[in-house]
Amino acid sequence: MAKFLVIGEVKDGAFRNVSFEAVGAAKMIDESAETVGVVLGSGVTDAADTFYQYGVDRVLTVDDEKLENYTPEGWTQALLTVIEQENPDGIVMGHTSIGRDITPKLASRLGSGLVSDVVAIEGGATFIRPIYSGKAFEKVEIEDGLTFVTIRPNNIPAPEQDSSLNGSAEAVQAEIKDLDTVIKEVVKNTTSGVDLSEASVIVAGGRGMKNEENFKILDELAEVLNGAVGASRGACDAEYCDYALQIGQTGKVVTPDLYIAVGLSGAIQHVAGMSNSKIIVAINKDPEADIFSIADYGIVGDLFDIVPKLTEEFKKAVVSG
Asked: How far apart are alpha carbons 40 and 20 in whole angstroms?
């Protein structure tokens, strides 16, 4: 029987959703394979048990205070220990900031290939991923060797959670040698409790927001929709918001169910980071703005009049619904 390791990510004591989507991806590759969840960190054992509710067969933890904060050398040492112990046929994890950083290092150490940023899986071993900043897609087939992939959040469905499934995580003893990297402080720059890369709804602002104060109307709309606020590089460069919110070719790549672009011109660098959103709504006073060419719905008008009205209407819908 084949075996797949699914590397989960725990943030603030809870799994990131993409960890469960990675379980779904592993089962799409080989439904009959044994699926083993792997969780690294400090004090993660209790959270790790949740992995069972998404259909994994076993859960392994490497619980060490040296793994409290992510460092590439710490995770590499821990994961190589798990991989050597389990000898898997495949490894799957999210294409997150950690996934993008650690997987090339692991693939190099293992002498294997890596298919990154996968958005769909066909026939088990055929992976679809965007290229040329999302302008085209390529199909990659793995014919031999380790199946090593990262998946883009919000693209591959996670298995249905079944709270009746349970189990106890197995501890793996990994020797984490002294780390050259020391994390002294983690500064979180975000205006929302919803992770931007995993949000199902994103309200993004551009230079049309005019100033930092005006971004508050986007915060209000995002809060009503239980979404996250994003921004274009232009808005970040103008210091309307923090660069942690930047979406685009040099920022985060997102694929929410609903993307509301407010005061955004539709520059190609920004579009590269959000064009695969399922539904795009554009609000701009310029009817010739490029953003309308990719939008499913467009509203031409003053955003400072339209956005507050949308917020009020959504509030009514939430209350009545």
From this structure: 15
Residue 123 pLDDT class (50, 70, 90 cuts): confident
C-alpha span between 186 and 202 (Å, rounded) = 25
Cα angle, residue 278 at apex, residues 210 and 285 outer, rounded to 5°:
30
What secondary structure letter does DSSP report for 158? P
Helices (H) and strands (E) in the chain, counts: 8, 17
For 265-318, the three-class secondary structure string (H helix, E strand, C coil) is CCCHHHHCCCCCCCEEEEEECCCCCHHHHCCCEEEECCHHHHHHHHHHHHHHHH
d(CA 94, CA 152): 6
Which amino acid does the sequence have at 252? K
Q: Which helix (H) or strand (E) holds 39?
A: strand 34-41
Using CA atoms, how far apart are residues 68 and 179, in angstroms rounded to an integer? 12
> Can you give the pLDDT at residue 181?
78
Q: Which residues are known binding-site members for FAD?
A: 207, 232-233, 246-250, 263-270, 284
Task: Find all residues with CB under 8 Å of 31, minimum gap 6, and list them.
Answer: none
Q: Are 261 and 241 in contact (CB under 8 A)?
A: no
Contact 99, 21 (CB under 8 A): no
pTM of the predicted model as reported, rounded to 2 decimal places: 0.87
Convert the pLDDT of each residue in 256-294 to its tens digit: 999 999 999 999 999 999 998 999 999 999 999 999 999
State how beta strands 120-122 and 126-131 pair.
antiparallel
Residue 191 has pLDDT above 60, yes or no: no
Q: How far apart are CA 272 and CA 33, in angstroms?
A: 35
CA–CA gap between residue 199 and residue 195 (Å, rounded): 6
- Which among 249, 246, 147 is positioned nearest to 206, based on CA atoms? 246
Task: Extract the annotated binding site.
Answer: 207, 232-233, 246-250, 263-270, 284
Residues in the chain: 321
* Cα-to-chain-centroid distance, residue 220: 23
